[in-house]
Input
Amino acid sequence: MVQSTGEATIADERPLTERGTETDLRRLLDTATDAIAVHRAGKVVYANPAILKLLGYDRLDQILGRSPVDFVSPRYRDLVARRVFKESAGGRAEPELEERFLHASGREVPVQVLATPLRFEGRLATLVHVRDLTAIKALEGRLHAADRLASAGFVAAAVVHEVDAPLALALKDVQLLGRRLDAVVPTAHAEELHALCERVNRGLLSVRSVVRDVEVLSGATREARGALDVHVVLDSIASLVGFQLRGCARLVKRYGDVPPVSGSRAKLGQVFANVLVNAAQAIPPGDEVGNEITIVTFTRAHEVVIEIHDTGTGIATELLDGVFEPFFTTKAHATGLGLSVSRSLLEAEGGSITVRRGPGGGTTFVVTLRAASARAHDTMAAHP
Output
């Protein structure tokens, strides 16, 4: 029998029983759901369909004959090259290693690799068993983000609690001072002092508005879940993050006639804050008149749709699929968790978020929420 090993064509002089055992092994590996490859002398000599899918290739000839290091992220290649050399020279199993493979699209895939020596096609080789860790890493990222958000929410709630009482007292005292001015201040100075008291009162009211917005965003207010006016939530968050827009863009609101939505005001506020801050950071400062962040709301079937457009630098088309993955970011000093957390929060509320490039540049995020009436109808149908 003559067979091709990918290196040379040689006569296979092994006993028929040994060749039959290898046929059974190949059949087993071909049907395995985990990704498996075999390499020998620095070249891949076998790959099952699962590893083709993991790496994003369609045909075996795109993998066979290549170095296993070709499919590893550049930052892991030196480590993996040394490991492959040890496997080839020593013929012994290596401990499991977490690394990152390089998908055909260019993105990295987190994996756990176990290498084991075996005889393949009558010669010593190394079987590589690969476990895809993408889902596990995503879950770890979301749990980590949830822990950080919970801590931030706790701190914000504590600050709100400490600020709220003295703020209320200051407002009351300023109003009382304004009422008593006429009795103790000469008429010539009363008007000026009344204006000063009014200015202080407006400033304190503005601070109280910010405190209320932080209270909503942090979840410090434990309001009962129910029907929410999405425009009220949007206005509150736009006011809170408005400082991010100064000097870079105008905020334009094009609200439609939409029904209430059901959900948590704090969670929806967090989502809108993440998207608006991302939009503001995507726009270079210096042209506040020429740039816009536009919020559009409308209904579609039993859904309320919120579109947030920006005229910023936009996101490259090949990167759009990854923006909701944990730790994905195009910014130098960012965690890459905001949009991932936003997606999780919306899914918990029965909603969704997607992204696309704007028709004239920039980016459009689309948030979809269930209308409160639609959710109530589904609940009644499920519990007659």
Observations:
- The chain has three domains: 2-132, 135-222, 225-384.
- The longest strand covers residues 108-120.
- The mean pLDDT is 77.
- Residues 135-222 form one domain.
